[in-house]
TrEMBL record:
Keywords: Cytoplasm, Lipid biosynthesis, Lipid metabolism, NAD, NADP, Nucleotide-binding, Oxidoreductase, Phospholipid biosynthesis, Phospholipid metabolism. Residues 2-150 form the Glycerol-3-phosphate dehydrogenase NAD-dependent N-terminal domain. The keyword NADP applies. NADPH binds at F10, R30, K99, A131, R246, E266. It comes from Jannaschia seosinensis. This is Glycerol-3-phosphate dehydrogenase [NAD(P)+]. NAD(+) binds at G6, A7, G8, A9, F10, G11, A131, R246. Substrate binds at K99, R246, N247. Pathway: Membrane lipid metabolism; glycerophospholipid metabolism. GO terms for biological process: carbohydrate metabolic process; glycerol-3-phosphate biosynthetic process; glycerol-3-phosphate catabolic process; glycerophospholipid metabolic process; phospholipid biosynthetic process.
Length: 316
């Protein structure tokens, strides 16, 4: 039996594909009334058009997940540290499916898990995948990072489904940082497109953004080959190119001078966290700095572009 914490779009999509593959799934959401309603409506508010099969038990009571040896965590990154201790669970394996860096502690999801659930083996699941695609059973591939190779292998086998193919690695930092940092670049790309700066500008931002991801993540212990994989280059390609990305949509609205839609956008907090990490580790992050300024309203798109173009010429 698999437990999923967070009945948002992604947690629910994972529940649907795992149940379709034959798993019994307990899906916990913080809104107990909505989860009770979901038992009869057989859908959750964040993914209303996706029916929940009989193999999924929606619940607002975390105790219903106490028999689940593996728990997937799919709440927004900035709420992970408050969610975990409140659940009262002690799973053997805890797989983070959230993308970001905790702004208070600058920890990735597996470090947060280790802090609150020291007995659990932590892992991270990340890569290019829109919740709607996974829920529809469209082909998807993700990275599963687990420092314990044998647990990682077991999780890979358990969580892969006929349409969701997992690749495993022991490079937890690479999987975490690739998935977290690409959201920052997606905001920047959305702003460029929204402001009418063109496809060439987007390609330049993606490429230089990827250079920043490489610099910061390798300084923090990630391996280059992981960052060139699904949770890095792969997810960067998806989110920087698709209006379906909420991070891209946020940047797009800012680029057009409009009010951004109200949605989970992990890239805003992660951009700030990345700047702090960059300052500590002596890593220059010009695209990230411009994105932070843009999101905070300190810079307009034109100022941000000027700041990037006026930097000293350098080698690639
Ligand atoms: N959507 C996608 O396509 C993908 C998302 N992800 C990642 O999955 C994670 C979750 O995103 P997603 O499911 O899309 O987000 P949603 O906005 O769809 O849902 C967020 C979920 O987290 C809950 N939540 C929000 N704030 C808190 C809080 N403070 N404490 C506890 N629970 C909270 C929400 O509860 P409530 O409904 O009650 O507000 C909801 O169940 C993110 O890190 C995201 O980057 C990864 C890959 C794809
Ligand atoms: O991470 C995602 C796809 O891999 C989803 O991106 P958004 O959170 O920007 O919608």
């Amino acid at each position: 039996m698999i437990g999923i914490v967070g009945a948002g779009a992604f947690g629910t999509a994972l529940a649907v594909t795992l149940a379709r593959a034959g798993h019994e799934v307990r899906l916990w959401g913080r809104d107990a009334a909505a989860m009770t309603a979901a038992r009869t409506v057989r859908a959750v508010p964040r993914l209303p058009d996706v029916p929940l099969s009989d193999g999924i038990m929606p619940t607002g009571d975390a105790a219903d997940l106490s028999d689940c040896g593996t728990i997937l965590l799919s709440v927004p990154m900035q709420s992970l540290a408050t969610t975990l201790p409140a659940l009262g669970l002690r799973p053997a394996h805890a797989v983070a499916a959230c993308k970001g860096v905790d702004l208070t502690t600058l920890e990735g999801p597996t470090r947060v898990i280790a802090r609150f659930w020291p007995d659990a083996t932590p892992a991270i699941l990340s890569g290019p995948s829109f919740a709607a695609d996974i829920a529809r059973g469209l082909p998807t591939a993700l990275s599963l990072g687990c420092a314990d190779a044998s647990v990682g292998g077991r999780l890979q086998a358990a969580l892969s489904t006929p349409t969701l193919r997992l690749y495993r690695t022991t490079d937890v930092a690479g999987v975490e940082l690739g998935g977290a940092l690409k959201n920052v670049v997606a905001i920047a790309c959305g702003a460029a497109i929204g402001a009418g700066l063109g496809e060439s500008a987007r390609a330049a931002l993606m490429t230089r953004g990827m250079a920043e991801i490489m610099r910061l993540a390798t300084a923090l212990g990630a391996r280059r080959e992981t960052l060139m994989g699904l949770s890095g280059l792969g997810d960067l390609a998806l989110t920087c190119a698709s209006p379906a990305s909420r991070n891209f949509a946020l940047g797009h609205a800012l680029g057009r001078g409009e009010t951004p839609p109200d949605a989970t956008t992990e890239g805003t907090a992660t951009a700030e966290a990345a700047l702090r990490l960059g300052a500590t580790h002596g890593v220059e992050l010009p695209v990230t700095a411009a994105t932070v300024g843009l999101v905070a309203g300190r810079l307009g798109v034109e100022d941000a572009v000027r700041a990037l173009l006026e930097r000293d010429l350098t080698t690639e």
